[in-house]
Amino acid sequence: MSEHQSTYEPKSAFERWLDSRLPIVRFSADLMSFPTPRNLNYWYTFGGILAFCLMVQIITGIVLAMHYDTSSHGAFMSVQREIMRDVNFGWLIRGLHANGASMFFLAVYLHILRGIYYGSYKAPREVLWWLGCVIYVLMMATAFMGYVLPWGQMSFWGAKVITNLLGAFPVVGGTITTLLWGGFSVGGPTLNRFFSLHYLLPFVIAGVVALHIWALHVPGNNNPTGVEVKGKQDTVPFHPYYTVKDLFAIMVFVILFAAVVFFIPDAFEKVDNNIEANPLVTPPHIVPEWYLLPFYAILRAIPDKLSGVLALAGAIGMLFILPFLDQNKVKSMRYRPAARLYFFIWIAFCLILGWCGSQEPQGTVIPGPAGPVIIDYGINSVTWLARVSTAYYFAYFLIITPLLAMTEKTLPVPDSLFTPVLAKSAAPAE
Ligand code: HEM
């Protein structure tokens, strides 16, 4: 908010008194009058939608915690019987929280894709972008730990597979895993640790979101043209223009959210998770939630465990280094047809990776005392598809993006973000 001059005038004696001690009303008024580019489209409403999602997760989560039993003996029943059946509207609170996580990720993926498409990670918004990346990593950690809490089969075995990955790191791996488990395997102490962190992290996310919005208000919003605001003529005050637009988008989002919660509440749930965790029975097909599937596919595409873990971390790391990889001065892909094409191909490969991650591992299956056991995962068409997609995923960031930044012939960029707006309104009606 550095360049934005405050227009707030305290009206009463009390407001003047408060303003000279804690200018909180001035701060809120400045947020509302913040000059915002006049050409923001609906892709720019996802920030507000995400803030709404975070609020829903925190409120419903606090209510769930009131009825949740954190012991490994009571966790499953406290969810399945107490929350789902005995607590008034417990089923609704849980439905909102569990499906809310999926809605949150849907919104965050669209928010990130929007950021990449319009080049919002480029100067002067790199810190804003990195804070967003930190939020994303925190969201994944929170969701992963939350998934363990119902203490069903998928909770338990998902936790086992993912925490075991840390053991792949030489020297420190074993110690870190033991610390995280609170013992020598996933068990009661692990559940307690995950509950504690799952309660804490959303508040850390809220803190980072505050920094994210602060970092947004220093340079101001980017916009679909990627052309920076040049003066008053390019902006409108945030309120009422974008408060109303954001509220409308949130309402549409709520309708979709409600449709999921009321009509298909189990759509994202794995049936196995309605069976209590049993360390002696391994489910044949352990899968994470849909929003983590592409990373799971990258992990499984690489036969060596440590390399797989590094590739998984690297895939997320690509987002962090994106501002260094793309040095092209033109921000928006509206004027970068080649970058746009490779970006859409990248999205397609991410979806393919998601599909690969959801597939059952094929290989040699032998009967075991507690059901079928896969002894050799083998190499099959899904693995190869995942490998090709992984290769494109990394090539997009490490080869295609830097090369395009240097060589692409961009389309003419308008001299002001206002020009395309005027051109549209001046165009004859069809
Ligand atoms: C809890 C999660 C998040 C919340 C509540 C949030 C909130 C917001 C809000 C309110 C805005 C301004 C409105 C808009 O542009 O949509 C914004 C902008 C932005 N966010 Fe986020 N965000 C979150 C996660 C992320 C993530 C994960 C990333 C990227 C990895 C990210 C990157 C950005 C960028 C680059 C902008 C500037 C967009 C532009 O001006 O073109 N955000 N965010």
Strand content: under 5%
Q: Which cofactors or ions or other ligands sit in this model?
A: protoporphyrin IX containing FE
**Poorly predicted regions:** none
The total strand number stands at 4
CATH class of the largest domain: Mainly Alpha
Count of DSSP helices? 15
CATH superfamily of the largest domain: Cytochrome Bc1 Complex, Chain C
In one word, what is the shape?
Answer: globular
List the helices and strands and how they pair.
Elements: H1 13-19, H2 24-32, E1 35-37, H3 46-67, H4 75-86, H5 90-117, H6 126-148, H7 153-166, H8 173-181, H9 188-217, E2 235-237, H10 238-263, H11 293-301, H12 305-325, H13 337-358, E3 364-368, E4 371-376, H14 381-407, H15 418-426
Antiparallel strand pairs: 1-2, 3-4
Bound molecules: protoporphyrin IX containing FE.
Protoporphyrin IX containing FE binds next to helix 3, helix 5, helix 6 and helix 9.
Provide a descriptive summary of the structure in words.
The chain is mainly alpha-helical. The chain folds into three domains: 33 residues, no CATH class; 236 residues, Cytochrome Bc1 Complex, Chain C; 117 residues, no CATH class. It is built from 15 helices and four strands. The strands form two sheets. A two-stranded antiparallel ribbon has the order 1-2. A hairpin with a 2-residue loop joins strand 3 and strand 4. The longest helix is centred in the middle third of the chain and has 30 residues. The mean pLDDT is 93.
